[in-house]
Design goal:
This protein is α+β, with helices and mostly antiparallel strands. It folds into two domains: about 30-120; about 135-295, no CATH class. Helices cover about 50% and strands about 10% of the residues. It has ten helices and four strands, in the order αααααααβαββααβ. It has helices spanning about 1-20, 35-40, 55-65, 70-80, 90-100, 110-120, 140-190, 210-225, 255, 265-275, and strands at about 195, 230-235, 240-245, 290-295. Helix 2 (about 35-40) packs across helix 6 (about 110-120) and helix 4 crosses helix 6. The chain is globular, with a radius of gyration of 24 Å.
């Protein structure tokens, strides 16, 4: 009987030991399944630079102050993203600075995972100097990074406003009539040339040249291989040019995604009306669809 008891005890200890061993490496926040969805849906706007929307670390801090449990935190973020309003906004200074975000029609289960990830993750603290997002030592790279960041912020803020007030079709009208004038305003501010170029342009004025197409293809291969995409400086015809890749996110797919999957019929009709020679569709998330191009005058 004593032997049976001993064997039973050893068996239980073995099971408990195995269970502890299996749980010795729990899933961390950075490995959370919501991370990939956050990167795809939210990362381009809510990154640490705070360029076009409040950074995730600020969202996390303010929501945790109001909602002490993870369950309430997740519910509050999910509800706000699906139906944003000034009344429900916790970060009211951010709404004043960036405008109210448009409603996002993401699946509820995806929003839950994203909110869980935001609650659990340790985010990088934003740099106090917003012009130093990449902190390049080279002065030309630093200037190019500043110009592209501020141009992207201006375009992104106005695009988000157009989506909020007019929907995706209205955003197309904005891009058609306002994107180039807004870019021109940044050209005047910095007294230099700024352009977005692509190997598959929507507007033929943004067509990349042969050398730039090779750069875009190289960036696309780097992204496929998991390599970091660094800005580049090139000299051509006595001028210095700064290039930075433009990568798609979930929001981009409303106008640049697969025609039979992401783009609604009314949006496609508007694209064909405004851009008869359009080539800028067929993208998936996290793909290079072009580059910012800036002439560096030092």
């Amino acid at each position: 009987m004593r032997m049976i008891t001993l064997l039973f005890t050893l068996a239980i200890a073995s099971i408990i030991g195995q269970a502890c061993q299996n749980n010795s490496n729990p899933v961390t926040a950075t490995e959370h399944p919501g991370k990939a969805k956050f990167d795809a849906y939210c990362g381009s706007c809510h990154n640490s630079s705070g360029a076009v929307a409040p950074p995730a670390i600020a969202i996390q801090r303010h929501y945790k102050m109001k909602h002490k449990t993870e369950e309430n935190f997740v519910a509050a973020i999910s509800e706000f993203v699906l139906n944003p309003s000034i009344k429900k906004a916790i970060l009211k200074p951010a709404v004043k600075k960036f405008g109210l975000m448009p409603a996002m029609s993401y699946p509820k289960e995806d929003l839950t995972l994203i909110a869980e990830y935001i609650y659990q993750n340790t985010f990088e603290k934003p740099n106090d100097d917003e012009t130093a997002v990449d902190e390049p030592e080279n002065a030309s790279l630093k200037l190019g990074s500043e110009i592209t960041k501020n141009t992207k912020q201006l375009l992104g803020k106005n695009l988000m406003s157009a989506i909020k007030t007019e929907g995706t079709v209205g955003a197309l009208a904005f891009c058609n009539t306002q994107a180039i004038p807004l870019t021109d305003s940044m050209m005047n501010k910095y007294q230099t040339f700024i352009q977005r170029v692509s190997d598959k342009p929507r507007n033929h004025k943004n067509s990349a040249n042969e050398a730039e197409i090779e750069m875009i293809i190289a960036y696309q291969e780097q992204l496929k291989n998991g390599s970091a995409l660094a800005p580049q400086l090139l000299e051509s015809n006595g001028k210095k040019w700064f290039y930075k890749p433009i990568v798609t996110n979930q929001m981009c797919l409303q106008c640049h995604g697969a025609i039979d999957k992401n783009i609604k019929p009314e949006v496609l009709a508007e694209i064909k009306t405004r851009y008869p020679e359009d080539r800028a569709t067929g993208y998936a998330e996290n793909q290079v669809r072009g580059m910012f191009k800036v002439e560096i005058k030092e």
